[in-house]
């Protein structure tokens, strides 16, 4: 009986202690995340501190949107931002003379995520400007990428375009950090590459979930367009598994044969709706070329040589 | 107390434990029973909310009109005419709510909001038919004042006598939408007691569903947390479409946003199609526009099949009576 009483007491005390520890830890987590969000907001807000171009004045205090609140601001547009690790949005309206300006600064988790969402929204046909790592503009719109920020500016009035440009340069200076596209893209062959076609896809590259995340770049040789995919796996084993899934997919939907001349895990495949594909692995990467040109094998080898 | 503990037998301890557990289970059960059986007053407007605004079918008239031409106002006029004329839809003394998309701080050229000339022409037609009031409203995503002004809709609609209403938080009422997914939700009260509802969305790209058309436009009558709506987007679209059942739908395809919807912004993402698609079957209209401009099949848009199963229309748009006209 003494044992029973002792066990009961120990159990009750342990349960109480566990509850207290859990409560404290969740309070710490909540406080920590609130503090983190407040820091991020302060950092974003600081980007828009005085002085501002042409004495632009804020029309209202800035609004901040968390991942949960983003739908209130951009409705269904939020989905793709959340896919790319959206952390925080600062939204603020300004006025300078008759010109009105809206600033949206999206803070993403990582630089490749910022590139991913930026690239998902841009099209090779846009008018590009050299601000940040890359930017583009149209009448009343100027968007650019820098470090882990994606900045979107829009304005109205005939004079707004000049104001957009000044705001963009000011923000770029204040953001600092990385002003280049993801390093992996620099390693890919430039010849015949379609300018501004690079993508970083977190979901279904070439329609295959198992290849994500992956960089996708278009190449054009005459009228023929090819797509180069560099799937970034966790390690060499994961890359091998992705490559096997790709082979399985083509075996089931068309044909796929081993092609050792292409290098590690080389394969040649085709089906009626995706067309022809050549692929290989290199370390933790799967390199695939859809609709390859005549020198496709050479491109695969060049890419493989440039990857670690 | 100390002596009680010391002399507690294993049997006594078990009995005490069972008593505590029994009391707990009893309390939980009572709570559950009370939550289901207790009388709670329903909000007055929720009880009075009008569900459905459809008119009787007329087998001699088209169910869908696809009109192409240069002048957006003329397209709206012709579309309504082809469907039987405005008096088929609006009776003298009706209170009419016209629901464009005014969700975004964008100009008409950016094609994120409904074309203002189309909205104005619909208002004019309703007034000509003797409508007592024609209300134009939307729950914007961006700052409503800027959206209503920059879209050009406030000015265009006011010019022809519409009551343009910018929603404010006091105008939302909790309503039981009686949907399969959506139940109690804050709804803009203007939608609850009107005689007729005309849905005037703009056709746009949408990152989640591929395209946003007529049924998606009903998100613009709701308050509350939007992220919850997107968790079950197809189900919630059908619940809302079932709740409203509009009198008439006119999808603005004059300019369509083919990338980066629903916000857009870049003029290079906009295509000029100079077309309006109008009709009384909202499911057929959405299915047609999705196929015509985005090459999306029914399988890509599950809400179409779900809406058809709910009796809201047919996704087999090829089977509906259609009038195609180029001006």
Q: Could you name the ranges of chain A where pLDDT drops below 50 across 5 or more consecutive residues?
A: none
How far from one another are the termini of chain B? 94 Å
Q: Classify the fold: give the CATH topology of the largest domain in chain B.
A: Rossmann fold
CATH architecture of the largest domain in chain B: 3-Layer(aba) Sandwich
Largest sheet of chain A: 8 strands, antiparallel
What's the gyration radius of chain A in Å?
25 Å
* Main sheet record of chain B: 10 strands, mixed
Radius of gyration of chain B over all CA atoms, rounded: 25 Å
The overall average pLDDT of chain A, rounded, is 90
What is the mean pLDDT of chain B?
Answer: 90
CATH superfamily of the largest domain in chain B: LarA, N-terminal domain
Q: How many strands in all of chain A?
A: 15
Largest interface: A-B, 32 and 38 residues
Question: Poorly predicted ranges of chain B (pLDDT <50, ≥5 residues)?
Answer: 1-6, 38-43
What best-fitting shape of chain B do the alpha-carbon axes yield? elongated
In short:
The complex is a heterodimer of chains A (308) and B (327). With 308 residues, chain A is an alpha+beta fold. Helix content of chain A is 38%, strand content 30%.
Structure overview:
The complex is a heterodimer of chains A (308) and B (327). Chain A folds into two domains: 52-175, Phosphorylase Kinase, domain 1; 183-306, 3-Layer(aba) Sandwich (Protein Transport Mog1p, Chain A). Helices cover 38% and strands 30% of the residues of chain A. Chain A has helices spanning 2-47, 70-74, 78-83, 111-121, 160-175, 183-186, 236-253, 296-306, and strands spanning 57-58, 63-65, 86-96, 99-108, 127-129, 134-138, 141-146, 149-156, 199-201, 214-221, 224-232, 254-258, 267-271, 275-282, 285-290. In chain A, the strands form two sheets. In chain A, strands 1, 2, 3, 4, 5, 6, 7 and 8 form an eight-stranded antiparallel sheet that branches. In chain A, strands 9-10-11-15-14-13-12 form a seven-stranded antiparallel sheet, with helices on both faces. In chain A, strand 7 (141-146) and strand 8 form a beta hairpin. The model of chain A has no long low-confidence stretch (mean pLDDT 90). Chain B is α/β, with parallel strands linked by helices and 327 residues long. Chain B has two domains: 2-37; 46-326, LarA, N-terminal domain (Rossmann fold), CATH 3.40.50.11440. Chain B is 36% helix and 20% strand. Chain B contains twelve helices and twelve strands. Chain B has helices at 2-6, 10-37, 44-48, 72-82, 86-89, 116-128, 144-150, 153-159, 226-231, 233-244, 282-294, 302-309; strands at 64-68, 95-100, 133-137, 163-165, 172-176, 184-188, 196-200, 202-206, 210-212, 248-257, 270-279, 322-326. In chain B, the strands form two sheets. In chain B, strands 1, 2, 3, 4, 7, 8, 9, 10, 11 and 12 form a ten-stranded mixed sheet that branches. Chain B starts with a helix and ends with a strand. The interface between A and B is medium-sized, with 32 and 38 residues.
């Amino acid at each position: 009986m003494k044992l029973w009483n002792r066990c009961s007491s120990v159990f009750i005390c342990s349960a109480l202690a566990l509850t207290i520890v859990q409560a404290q830890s969740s309070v710490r987590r909540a406080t920590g995340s609130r503090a983190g969000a407040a820091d991020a907001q302060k950092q974003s807000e600081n980007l828009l501190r005085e002085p501002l171009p042409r004495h632009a004045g804020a029309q209202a205090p800035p609004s901040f949107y968390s991942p949960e609140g983003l739908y209130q601001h951009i409705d269904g547009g939020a989905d793709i931002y959340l896919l790319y690790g959206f952390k925080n949005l600062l939204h603020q309206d300004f006025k300078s003379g008759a010109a009105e300006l809206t600033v949206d600064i999206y803070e993403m988790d990582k630089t490749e995520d910022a590139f991913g969402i930026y690239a998902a929204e841009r099209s090779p046909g846009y008018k590009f400007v050299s601000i940040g790592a890359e930017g583009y503009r149209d009448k009343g719109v100027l968007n650019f990428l820098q470090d882990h920020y994606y900045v979107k500016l829009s304005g109205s009035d005939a004079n707004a375009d000049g104001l957009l440009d000044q705001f963009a340069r000011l923000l770029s200076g204040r953001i600092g950090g990385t002003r280049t596209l993801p390093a992996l893209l620099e390693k890919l062959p430039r010849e015949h590459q379609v300018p501004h076609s690079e993508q970083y896809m977190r979901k279904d590259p070439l329609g295959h979930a198992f290849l994500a995340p992956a960089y996708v770049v278009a190449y054009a040789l005459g009228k023929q367009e090819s797509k180069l995919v560099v799937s970034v796996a966790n390690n060499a084993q994961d890359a091998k598994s992705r490559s096997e899934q790709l082979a399985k997919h083509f075996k089931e939907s068309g044909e796929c044969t081993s092609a050792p001349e292409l290098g590690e895990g080389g394969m040649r495949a085709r089906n009626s709706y995706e067309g022809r594909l050549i692929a290989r692995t290199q370390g933790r990467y799967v390199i695939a070329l859809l609709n390859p040109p005549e020198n496709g094998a050479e491109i695969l080898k060049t890419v493989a040589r440039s990857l670690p | 107390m100390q002596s009680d503990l010391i002399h507690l037998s294993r049997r006594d301890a078990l009995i005490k434990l069972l008593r505590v557990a029994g009391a707990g289970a009893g309390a939980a059960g009572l709570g559950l029973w009370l939550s289901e059986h207790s009388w709670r007053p329903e909000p007055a407007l929720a009880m009075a909310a009008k569900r459905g605004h459809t008119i009787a079918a007329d087998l001699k008239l088209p169910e869908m009109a696809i009109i192409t031409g240069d002048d957006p106002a003329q397209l709206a006029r012709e579309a309504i005419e082809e469907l039987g004329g405005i008096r088929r839809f609006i009776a003298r003394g009706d209170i009419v709510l016209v629901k464009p998309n005014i969700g975004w701080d964008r100009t008409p050229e950016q094609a994120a909001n409904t074309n203002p000339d189309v909205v104005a022409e619909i208002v004019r037609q309703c007034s000509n038919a003797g409508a007592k009031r024609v209300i134009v409203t939307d729950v914007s995503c961006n700052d409503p004042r800027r959206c209503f002004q920059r879209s050009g809709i406030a000015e265009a609609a006011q010019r022809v006598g519409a009551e343009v209403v910018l929603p404010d938080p006091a105008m939302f009422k909790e309503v039981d939408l009686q949907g399969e997914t959506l139940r109690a939700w804050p709804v803009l009260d203007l939608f609850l007691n009107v005689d007729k509802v005309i849905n005037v969305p703009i056709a746009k790209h949408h990152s989640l569903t591929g395209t946003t058309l007529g049924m998606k436009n009903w998100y613009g009558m709701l308050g509350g947390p939007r992220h919850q709506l997107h968790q079950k987007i197809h189900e919630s679209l059908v619940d809302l479409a079932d709740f409203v059942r509009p009198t008439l739908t006119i999808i603005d395809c004059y300019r369509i946003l083919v990338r980066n919807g629903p916000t857009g912004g870049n003029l290079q993402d906009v295509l000029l199609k100079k077309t309006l698609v109008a009709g009384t079957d909202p499911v057929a209209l959405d299915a047609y526009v999705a196929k015509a401009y985005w090459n999306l099949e029914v399988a890509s848009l599950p809400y179409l099949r779900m809406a058809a199963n709910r009796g809201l229309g047919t996704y087999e748009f090829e089977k509906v009576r259609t009038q195609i006209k180029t001006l």
